[in-house]
Amino acid sequence: QVQLQESGPGLVKPSETLSLSCIVSGVSIRSYYWNWIRQPPGKGLEWIGYIYHSGTISYNPSLKDRVTISLDTARNQFSLKMNSVTAADTAVYYCASQREGFNYWGQGTLVTVSS
Amino acid sequence: DIQMTQSPTSLSASVGDRVTITCQASQDINNYLNWYQQKPGKAPKLLIYDASNLESGVPSRFSGSGSGTDFTFTISSLQPEDFTTYYCQQYDSLPLTFGGGTKVEIK
Q1: Do A61 and B1 touch (CB under 8 A)?
Q2: CB contact, 8 Å: B101 with chain A?
Q3: Half-sphere exposure of B34 (CA within 13 A, CB side)
Q4: What's the whole-number mean pLDDT along residues B5-31?
Q5: B76: which of A17, B45, B61, B92 fits an S-S bond (Cβ 3.0–4.6 Å)?
Q6: What's the CA dihedral at B39, A33, B25, B89 to 10 degrees?
Q7: What pLDDT, in 10s, does the model give residues B87-104?
Q8: CA distance A16 to chain B (A)
Q9: Looking at beta carbons, which residues of chain B come within 8 Å of A50?
């Protein structure tokens, strides 16, 4: 079955770079759009961006200057980098595939920005 | 950005009740509207895509309707496991955006 698994540090210092990876199993990384979505504690969902194997990438303009999403087709995984983080970036970060809707999700990983 | 306004933000209901949640888009999104269920500590789960299509494996008590700017999500008979939070999401235009969520609580 399709599984997505986020990995990366759970604690990042202010002004540093948040780096997460999402390992995809059970489906080719060429099959869907691959997204990052986040959810601050107790709040709603915010789309960060997506990537497609063709090279298509789109970012949320609210985060565009700080975010990079990349794809590693050989390892069937994709990654998120967000620089210059602040406490406002503290959230659960999810990776998700997209067909029409976000049909498969990772379990989420909490990233806390704190010194 | 397209703003998605969900209402109500919360509601109280009993097992067996019929529950309706609405989602209004700030501009026409055709039928590019999805609904998700999120339980505490878990990732959202896709229930309805393209406004009215039931995702595979989702119980038929969940349904959706609407097009353009106004959409409705209905649970025909609330079950104990349905008391949680629901979100709408549009994918007509970038950036993809979500509604603020509706928490369904036990009366």
Answers
A1: yes
A2: yes
A3: 21
A4: 97
A5: B61
A6: 0
A7: 999 999 999 999 999 999
A8: 25
A9: 96
Of A35, A44, A61, the CB nearest to B98: A44
H or E element, residue A78: strand A77-82
- B68 in A contact zone (CB under 8 Å): no
**A85-103 confidence digits (pLDDT tens):** 999 999 999 999 999 999 9
> Quick count: other Cβ atoms within 10 Å of Cβ A36?
27
Determine which of A2, A4, A45 to mutate to test the interface with B (most B C-beta atoms within 10 Å).
A45
Amino acid identity of residue B44, one-letter, is P
What is the distance between the alpha carbons of residues A77 and B32, in angstroms, rounded to a whole number? 27
Asked if pLDDT for residue A64 goes beyond 90, the answer is no
Q: For chain A, first and last CA: distance in Å?
A: 39
- How far are the Cα atoms of A11, A114, B18, B20 from residue A18, in angstroms, in the given order? 9, 12, 43, 39
* CA-CA-CA-CA dihedral for A77, A80, A81, A87, to nearest 10: -140
Pairwise CA distance, residues A51 & A45, whole Å: 18
